[in-house]
């Protein structure tokens, strides 16, 4: 039997895309291998959101040349944001040993290459092939069926907001909402394969349906998904402050299956920096949003994203971000140092004038602050009992998550995979907690 190997870098959307590619390959009779040297097909699913991710993709790609030279029959597929949705001629000239170039979220070129069928456009393939899943039961690769507890479902492709720092609109194309029937069918299929929790994905997931008036809103989609029997938990990410409506907050508060966890990036705490980023809100707007979320969804956890060292960011402006984070005390802060992305507005019009040393210093300051905040928040769980959905066993302990997305470890000889069980928390740290199962 022929084998495939997939290397995935980047966001949750890429993880979901790779699962669909694997499923499509298995439909064609291939089996998975963890060793690239053993594979007949190698798929590199790439990310270019940061320079480090792009460098890693190029490094991995160059490492495959000797394998191709040794085995000319090897099929190499470059996929994802390194390829993008536009012309790939420059990449083809630079990497002539690559057989197939696939845009993000579109396995059609690879499937067409393997089956010698006609390549359809990205827009056509998104609808006509449904990720090239010819059988809806193939929503997951074989190794994950019955084993994967939590899965991702893309609901919005691309983005049309165009923050000045972001390369996603240029690589993933304009915003496109998936048909609700496709999303519901995929969710039902995942549940039949053992999945208990799904996370809906979109660059701005709150904008689901905005491009298609006949589609429901994200709130409406959540209502439909919550009616699926056997689906225990629903999450969504990533939100945008401008599109988090009262309807959405009310729906999260009202539906037991939708978890009380919101991911809504602030990116910066200074109004001038936010304006330069083209975010469309002020620091005070974000403060009010956090207050609204907490008032409407008691006990909610909130995660954010922050970029330090954006072009022109002064020490005083950085301190506004520091002070905002210290004030709001959010559960999670995903931190990043600004990285120039070719083709973005920031790259074309703004000078990257904050040194790498200064970016790292600011990063570390926020990192230390967030560790203290998370430690304080998680300490409130000590001695409390909370329901945990268990995903997998890591060494001696089972790993699971609370409704608020806190990571919990429990020692048990029993098979806890896919079960939601009460756990009494006995130890807390900034990034995880330990507890004991509560027996009846």
What does this protein structure show overall?
The structure is a single chain. By secondary structure, this protein is of the alpha/beta class. The chain has four domains: 1-140, Methylthiotransferase, N-terminal domain (Rossmann fold, 3-Layer(aba) Sandwich), CATH 3.40.50; 146-259, Transcription Regulator spoIIAA; 266-379, Transcription Regulator spoIIAA, CATH 3.30.750; 381-437, OB fold (Dihydrolipoamide Acetyltransferase, E2P). Helices cover 35% and strands 21% of the residues. The chain has helices at residues 12-27, 51-63, 65-70, 89-94, 108-115, 122-128, 168-172, 180-192, 218-225, 246-254, 271-277, 283-296, 315-328, 345-349, 356-379, and strands at residues 3-8, 31-32, 41-46, 75-80, 100-102, 150-154, 156-157, 176-177, 197-201, 233-237, 261-263, 301-308, 332-337, 385-394, 397-401, 407-411, 420-428, 433-437. The chain has a five-stranded parallel beta sheet with strand order 2-1-3-4-5, with helices on both faces. It has a five-stranded mixed barrel with strand order 14-15-16-18-17. Helix 13 links the parallel strand 12 (301-308) and strand 13 (332-337). Mean pLDDT is 92; it is low at 118-138.
